[in-house]
């Protein structure tokens, strides 16, 4: 089967409409924020024109996959890169939750083909939605760290093996390109620079141009063992768009952060930190977060996954932080360990699958829009 047949795409759209993406679009239009004329996060200008309308801007959509990851980058000119695909949905094979949400965001963003799909690692909250997604949106190129190293004997390993095997079946049946990358590689993306800094358990051997300083945060940052799971093997990316730097390490673990950050910080400061591992305590060490000193952090937590109080405090305490955003209220945490509601896309209660959208500019300025309220916060260039 060739992936992304027009027929399949149409079916996907029909499913989405039936699913009630219309209802969500309506809720996006109900906001009363300063951008209320723009109807929430969508471009609403028909297929492809949305991407064209953002000339000179990078759009990043944080899809709510309920504590998994799926992050869509749309570059000037419409080139697209998706990092991860959320979870599988066996209960709703014709209208799977996460794949449908990702496809709906692609549509809003004017993306009719995912040019590059990065699989950070093979846990089901990252690769699980992939087989269902490729039936809805065609993919040009799959990028991953190579073989799955997590066996069924590890806790949760059976679903990892199943997710990897389902992905291999997609690769075998598709005519899309497949690229295995390692630390130091640069992805074949035109309108932004995407450097691989971790993968398959390894990290870059020497610092990036922005890094290279001794990292003062290492001494006070606790030591933790590697997990021995696919998390340790996450592909990590430093994305540069003009003066804007974005870090996405997937679920890279605390121990592997140390290899990247101590004693020398190999990364340097970033503007945007896509919070590692949904804000769980086995990632996001002070050695990482204090050194990268993000201006904006976006956490893809679920209602009861990630958003850990200790992780929250590390991020909130970092020296340059102007704004932390959450995909969900962390329902197991108190109000002091959640950001204010305007910076949360999905509050406790019935879930609407609201998205956060970041707009990045070449001068290093950026804004974040809450898909729940339509309100936008601007962050000027430093
Ligand atoms: Zn995860």
Structure explained in plain terms:
- This protein is α/β, with parallel strands linked by helices and 382 residues long.
- Helix content is 23%, strand content 21%.
- The chain has ten helices and 19 strands.
- The chain has helices at residues 6-19, 21-28, 49-53, 97-108, 124-127, 130-134, 157-173, 254-261, 286-292, 309-316; strands spanning 57-62, 71-74, 80-83, 116-118, 141-144, 177-180, 193-199, 202-203, 213-214, 236-241, 244-248, 264-265, 272-274, 296-299, 323-328, 344-346, 356-361, 366-370, 376-379.
- The strands form three sheets. Strands 6-5-4-3-2-1-17-18-19 form a nine-stranded mixed beta sheet, with helices on one face.
- Helix 1 (6-19) crosses helix 4 (97-108).
- The longest helix is centred in the middle third of the chain and has 17 residues, at 157-173.
- Zinc ion binds at residues 68-69, 123, 125-126, 251, 277-278.
């Amino acid at each position: 089967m060739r992936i992304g047949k027009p027929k399949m795409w149409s079916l996907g759209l029909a499913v989405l409409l039936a699913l009630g993406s219309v209802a969500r679009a309506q809720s996006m239009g109900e906001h009363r924020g300063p951008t209320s004329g723009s109807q929430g996060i969508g471009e609403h200008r028909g297929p492809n024109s949305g991407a064209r309308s953002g000339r000179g801007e990078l759009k990043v959509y944080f899809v709510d996959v309920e504590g998994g990851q799926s992050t869509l980058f749309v570059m000037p000119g419409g080139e697209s890169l998706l990092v991860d695909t959320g979870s599988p949905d066996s209960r709703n094979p014709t209208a799977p939750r996460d794949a449908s949400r990702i496809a709906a965001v692609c549509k809003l963003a004017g993306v009719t083909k995912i040019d590059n799909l990065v699989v950070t690692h093979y846990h089901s909250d990252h690769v699980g939605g992939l087989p269902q997604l490729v039936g809805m949106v065609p993919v040009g190129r799959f990028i991953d760290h190579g073989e799955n190293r997590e066996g069924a004997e590890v806790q949760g390993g059976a679903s990892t093996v199943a997710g990897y095997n389902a992905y291999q079946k997609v690769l075998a049946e598709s005519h899309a390109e497949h690229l295995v990358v390692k630390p130091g590689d640069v992805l074949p993306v035109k309108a932004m620079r995407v450097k691989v800094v971790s993968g398959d358990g390894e990290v870059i051997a020497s610092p990036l141009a922005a890094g290279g300083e001794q990292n003062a945060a290492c001494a006070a940052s606790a030591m933790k063992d590697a997990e021995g799971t696919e998390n340790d093997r996450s592909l990590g990316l430093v994305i540069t768009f003009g003066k804007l730097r974005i870090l996405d390490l997937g679920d890279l673990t605390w121990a592997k952060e140390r290899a990247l950050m101590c004693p020398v910080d190999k990364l340097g400061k970033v503007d945007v930190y896509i919070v590692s591992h949904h804000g769980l305590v086995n990632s996001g060490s002070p050695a990482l977060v204090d050194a990268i000193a993000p201006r904006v952090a976006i956490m893809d937590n679920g209602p009861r996954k990630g958003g850990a109080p200790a992780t929250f405090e590390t991020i909130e305490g970092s020296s340059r932080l102007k704004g932390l955003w959450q995909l969900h209220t962390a329902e197991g945490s108190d109000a002091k360990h959640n950001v204010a509601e305007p910076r949360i896309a999905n509050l406790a209660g019935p879930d609407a699958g609201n998205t956060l959208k970041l707009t990045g500019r070449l001068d290093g300025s950026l804004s974040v829009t809450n898909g729940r309220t339509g309100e936008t916060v601007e962050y000027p260039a430093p």
